[in-house]
Structure to design on (284 residues):
């Protein structure tokens, strides 16, 4: 094996070429460009052993993000461990819409419920250094990952452990509440497939109809929203948009809007509460 090269390894490996190349980058600690320039160099056997160990994990189905310990989200590199959901591209829509909603509001106060790896709270804090961003999760292990990410990326976020609003931070007042809660129905077959098998089940499913966490978030929002924005932005499943909109209507939200992800699925829904002490005229 001492004479094996990157090229021969990539050819022999049953993994998709891109995944095998990413594992080699990780083992060698090099950028992609290095692989392209050195693909016929012989590599030491010890490196092959390390690569083979990672490839074996991937062949068992373990997600790339957990093997590499990281995932890109909105152009930032986040540490991820099996204690947190792997950030999804569709959640970038939630973050983009939340940041857009904050435009024009000075020093906004933002609460992210069920923060997991912290991607939503941290990207908002990075986009709006004047914001006071709070994030909660019921998993101490997840909060440790989120706090590490915030520190590594230089984002100012406060964290508290507890169930949805039931934390020290959940009892404060905010201009915006944002959440990507567990919304997969307990019986959804996807929970037994692909990456989801390895992710924390409490971050994926409410172990019920998929709407129970969204219900708690929508119902509780009135107690902590305030100000002229008083907006709630939630991510939800591909078939939950109507249910979430009805939930928001029943809880006196106005200006209800849904946003489509890159797959053209309505994936994020928002609404705001109108308080009589903040009479702001809005366009729907
Ligand atoms: N969007 C994720 C999926 O379908 C689920 C994440 C979540 O429940 N918040 O895989």
């Amino acid at each position: 094996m001492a004479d094996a090269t990157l090229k021969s390894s990539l050819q022999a490996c049953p993994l998709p070429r891109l995944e095998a190349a990413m594992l080699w980058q990780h083992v060698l600690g090099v950028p992609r460009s290095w692989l392209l320039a050195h693909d016929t160099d012989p590599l030491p056997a010890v490196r092959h052993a390390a690569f083979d160990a990672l490839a074996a994990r991937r062949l068992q189905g373990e997600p790339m993000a957990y093997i590499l310990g990281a995932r890109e989200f909105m152009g930032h590199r986040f540490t991820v461990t099996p204690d947190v959901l792997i950030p999804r591209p569709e959640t970038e829509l939630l973050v983009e819409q939340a940041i857009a909603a904050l435009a024009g509001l000075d020093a906004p106060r933002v609460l992210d419920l069920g923060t997991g790896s912290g991607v939503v709270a941290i990207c908002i804090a990075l986009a709006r250094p004047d914001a006071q961003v709070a994030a909660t999760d019921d998993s101490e292990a997840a909060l440790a990952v989120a706090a590490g990410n915030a520190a590594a990326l230089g984002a100012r976020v406060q964290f508290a452990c507890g169930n949805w609003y039931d934390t020290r931070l959940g009892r404060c007042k905010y201009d915006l509440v944002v959440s990507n809660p567990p919304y997969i129905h307990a019986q959804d077959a996807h929970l037994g497939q692909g990456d989801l098998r390895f992710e924390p089940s409490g971050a994926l499913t409410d172990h019920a109809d998929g709407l129970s966490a969204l219900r708690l978030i929508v119902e509780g929002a009135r107690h902590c929203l305030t100000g002229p924005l008083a907006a709630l932005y939630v991510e939800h499943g591909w078939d939950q948009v109507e249910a979430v909109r009805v939930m928001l209507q029943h809880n006196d939200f106005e200006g209800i809007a849904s946003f489509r992800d890159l797959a053209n699925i309505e994936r994020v829904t928002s609404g705001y509460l109108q308080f009589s002490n903040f009479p702001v005229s809005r366009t729907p």
The pocket of glutamine is lined by residues 85, 88, 180-184, 196, 204 (CB under 6 Å). The domain at 88-272 is CATH 3.40.50.150 (Rossmann fold).
